[in-house]
Specification:
The protein has 118 residues and is α+β, with helices and mostly antiparallel strands. The chain has one domain: Glutaredoxin (3-Layer(aba) Sandwich), CATH 3.40.30.10.
Length: 118
C-alpha cells in the first residue's frame, strides 16, 4: 500500500509534516483535504483501522467546528452521522493524516510518525 498524505496546503503543521516525509525519503500520494476530501467509505475504514475514538478525527480548533457548534452536537450523533459530517467538509477533519500500512497517523507528532520509517 502506498502512503497517502492528506493535508491542507496552507496549514503550517501540514507543511512541516510534508517536509519531514520528504526528508525521510518516504514516498506518498499527496491529497488536498479540501479538493479531495476523504469519502464516507474511506473514513469508515480508516477510523476503524486507527483504533482511535472518532472524536480524535475532528479538527476541534477549526472555525467550521466552532461555527457548527459541534462540541454540543457531537455527543448526540451516531457514528454514521459523525462520519458523514466529516466527509462533508475537509476542514472538519484533523490534519494532516497519514494513511499507511504501518498505521493511521492523525495530526503530526514526529515521535509517532517515526514508526513509519522503522
Amino acid at each position: 500500500m502506498k502512503n497517502i498524505f492528506i493535508q491542507y496546503p496552507k496549514c503550517s503543521t501540514c507543511q512541516k509534516a510534508k517536509k519531514w516525509l520528504e526528508q525521510n525519503n518516504i514516498e506518498f500520494i499527496n491529497r488536498n483535504i479540501i479538493t479531495e476530501t476523504p469519502t464516507v467509505e474511506e473514513l469508515t475504514e480508516w477510523i476503524q483501522r486507527s483504533g482511535q475514538d472518532i472524536k480524535k478525527w475532528f479538527n476541534t480548533s477549526g472555525l467550521k467546528y466552532k461555527e457548527l457548534n459541534l462540541k454540543d452536537k457531537l455527543p448526540n450523533m451516531t457514528e454514521k452521522e459523525k462520519i458523514s459530517l466529516l466527509a462533508s467538509n475537509g476542514m472538519l477533519i484533523k490534519r494532516p493524516l497519514l494513511i499507511s500500512d504501518k498505521g493511521i497517523f492523525i495530526g503530526f507528532k514526529e515521535e509517532k510518525w517515526k514508526d513509519i520509517i522503522k
